[in-house]
């Protein structure tokens, strides 16, 4: 039987958390091929991240709390996308606070994002028979050890479900269970991306995220602060590579449902800080301060599955990525200050 062509010109894509760091880059990339609906309550993101997208007729931002039931028919702004007729074809669920310094105040938001928002977005996917990608996290594997730093998708991590940060760590595990349960019950094409540490322009500043604060402090001659100890290390993936991985995952067949996405090298944060000092010609020093609850050691992804099933590997070298973030920070330094 001949496959029928869709009766619409462009697909409708919904991105929750679309005004955040990763979400804004995803929205920007999706505009090449789709009409993009960005839902975000701005509780831990910024309208500045998507200000440059508001001019495009194929982009619509709606300030909304996705922990509530989502009725796209109720938004008059979406009439131009013919949502009542066309529905949505893809849903990316990214909304969840990732604030090391403000983690304590956002605990309930993390809990809701990994429970209520899972159900509201998955129910929407069932309604429209939309493909669905959930941005999970490498925290589901637990912390790395000196002898175990690389994680494969089949591994079951150990997470303390009663810890002060369990709303995020155990929350992501429960969120993955939601996705898999909807796959089983509704035969939904729903996928999980286990996202490892990602960096790039538009990361929140003065929020405990190391790289943007390293750069700003180096430019201003202040100490670059590492929270924990000088041996702290993690993998790093540039944001455009991560966006490419998420889109490839969405486009993959229904048999692909879980992949790691992240950098394939582990870096000592002390070495990265030293590299930033050198690249910015700064006289700054490195300081060590007590650990932040949300900022813990993370391992490195085994990328065998993403390479074989998605044809994906990160391409941007650390030095090239850092230069892009440094240039962005210099260009926007007054706004940041």
Automatic annotation (TrEMBL):
Organism from which the protein derives: Candidatus Magasanikbacteria bacterium GW2011_GWC2_37_14
GO biological process: D-xylose metabolic process
Keyword list, A-Z: Decarboxylase, Lyase, NAD
Protein name in UniProt: NAD-dependent epimerase/dehydratase family protein
Domain of life from the UniProt record: Bacteria
Pfam families linked to this entry: Epimerase
One GO cellular component term noted in the UniProt record for this chain: cytoplasm
InterPro entries, alphabetized: Epimerase_deHydtase (IPR001509), NAD(P)-bd_dom_sf (IPR036291), UXS-like (IPR044516)
GO molecular function, one term: NAD+ binding
Cofactor: NAD(+)
Annotated ranges, domain NAD-dependent epimerase/dehydratase: 13-262
């Amino acid at each position: 039987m001949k496959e029928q062509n869709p009766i619409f010109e462009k697909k409708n894509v919904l991105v929750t958390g679309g005004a955040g760091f990763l979400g804004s880059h995803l929205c920007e990339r999706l505009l090449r091929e789709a009409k993009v609906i960005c839902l975000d309550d701005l509780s831990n993101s910024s309208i500045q991240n998507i200000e440059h997208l508001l001019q495009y007729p194929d982009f619509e931002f709606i300030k909304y709390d996705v922990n509530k039931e989502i009725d796209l028919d109720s938004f008059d702004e979406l009439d131009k996308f013919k949502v009542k007729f066309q529905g949505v074809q893809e849903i990316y669920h990214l909304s969840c606070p990732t604030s090391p310094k403000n983690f304590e105040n956002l605990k309930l938001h993390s809990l809701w994002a990994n429970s209520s928002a899972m159900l509201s977005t998955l129910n929407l996917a069932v309604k429209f028979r939309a493909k669905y990608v959930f941005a999970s996290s490498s925290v589901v594997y637990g912390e790395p050890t000196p002898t175990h730093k690389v994680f494969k998708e089949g591994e079951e991590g150990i997470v303390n479900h009663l810890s002060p940060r369990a709303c995020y760590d155990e929350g992501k595990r429960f969120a993955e269970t939601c996705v898999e349960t909807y796959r089983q019950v509704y035969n939904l094409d729903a996928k999980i991306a286990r996202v490892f540490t990602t960096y790039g322009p538009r990361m929140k500043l003065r929020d405990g995220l190391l790289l943007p604060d390293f750069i700003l402090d180096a430019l201003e001659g202040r100490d670059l602060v590492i929270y924990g100890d000088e041996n702290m290390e993690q993998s790093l993936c540039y944001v455009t590579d991560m966006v490419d991985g998420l889109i490839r995952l969405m486009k993959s067949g229904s048999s692909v449902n879980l992949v790691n996405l992240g950098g394939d090298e582990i870096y000592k944060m002390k070495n990265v800080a030293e590299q930033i000092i050198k690249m910015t010609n700064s006289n700054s020093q490195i300081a060590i301060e007590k650990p932040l609850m949300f900022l813990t050691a993370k391992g490195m992804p085994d990328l065998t599955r993403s390479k074989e099933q998605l044809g994906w590997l990160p391409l941007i070298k650390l030095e090239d990525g850092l230069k892009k973030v440094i240039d962005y920070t210099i260009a926007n330094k007054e706004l940041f200050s």
